[in-house]
Amino acid sequence: MMRRCFVAILLVLCVANAALGQSEQKLAAKKAVNQGTLFGVGSMILTDTYLSPLEYNGLSLSLFYERLNATSLFNNKMLLQQQVLLQGASTDNPISNAKTYYGNIDYHLHGFYPILNANSFRLLGGAGTELSIGGVYNIRNSNNPAQLKTSINLNASLMAFYKWKQLTLRWQITTPLMGAFFSPGYGQSYYEIFVLGNDSGTIHFATPSNQRGLRNYITADYPIRKVTLRAGYLRNYYRTKANNLITSISSHQFVIGLAFESLSFGRRDLLNNDWLKSVYNE
Predict the structure, then answer these.
(1) Which of 62, 82, 275, 281 has the maximum number of C-beta atoms within 10 A of its C-beta?
(2) How confident is the model at residue 21 (pLDDT cuts 50, 70, 90)?
(3) What single string gives the DSSP state of each residue in the chain?
(4) Interatomic CA distance for residues 133 and 258, integer angstroms
């Protein structure tokens, strides 16, 4: 009788240990999600010939959020990156007697696949979409004081990582390949476009011939206790030419903020593991 009880207990322990081992393997297979929030400050050079033929220069500020996580695509090798950039600027004309204000929200969604993995160096190539909406406002103009800036694009991107001791360096470059953007004609009012409906020729198919863009992003990560200090350089350049109008927006910014990594669990993970508790449960 005692022997049977002992054997039964051993079987229960083996089954429980196997189940726990499978759960641990599944959890171990989960890769951390890297998230960072950065504040940027720098300069902007702005030209919009719909509003003024002059070049405006001034201060640029931004708030930048980034999320990078692994996916199950391509044998768990693909990384998914999301970036949200909120940027604003106050610029002056060459003699500082007129101002132009700029504001924009930019969203990137890219997938990256590893190209090279050699010791401390990793190189990844990717592509994705970009959605941008914002505007430019010139306080000196009375008839047409503002210009809408909106576009949607298919982007190509390269990203590289290099780890040196506790420091992780990252470089990423992104450029649009094709898409569409909005631009009115010279002297065409927004009342004419949106109220009277004379909007012909305001949406343009974008190629490198009429739209050029570049985002150069360099960061250095250094861990401090439970968070990571992230600092770097953010370069944004965007130029369009349509309807005899030229728009050029160029900014250089120093960015600094905090990043952290966490495990992401779904509802099924919470239900299948007693030691995982949701904040929604008592």
Answers:
(1) 62
(2) very low
(3) -HHHHHHHHHHHHHHHHHHHHHHHHHHHHPPPEEEEEEEEEEEEEEEETTTEEEEEEEEEEEEEEEEEEE-SHHHHT-EEEEEEEEEEEEEE-TTSS-EEEEEEEEEEEEEEEEEEEETTEEEEEEEEEEEEEEEEEETT-SSS-EEEEEEEEEEEEEEEEEEETTEEEEEEEEEEEEEEEE-PPTT--HHHHHTS---TT-EEEE-TTTEEEEEEEEEEEEEETTEEEEEEEEEEEEEEEETTEEEEEEEEEEEEEEEEEE----HHHHHH-TT---TT--
(4) 26
In this prediction, residue 3 carries a pLDDT of 47
* Distance in angstroms (rounded) separating the CA atoms of residues 6 and 231: 60
Q: Scan for tokens 């044998």, then name that residue.
A: 75
Q: Is residue 64 part of a domain?
A: yes
For residue 268, being part of any structural domain is answered with yes
6 within domain boundaries = no
Distance CA 239, CA 213 (A): 6
Q: pLDDT digit string (tens) for 189-245?
A: 888 998 888 888 899 999 999 999 999 999 999 999 888 999 999 999 999 999 999
- pLDDT value at 40 more than 70: yes
User: By residue range, what is the domain housing residue 186?
Assistant: 32-272
What count of other Cβ atoms lies within 10 Å of the Cβ of residue 269? 16
Its pTM stands at 0.83
> Residue 26, Cβ neighbours under 10 Å: how many?
12
The CATH number given to whatever domain includes residue 41 is: 2.40.128.100
pLDDT (tens digit per residue) in 235-258: 999 999 999 999 999 999 999 999
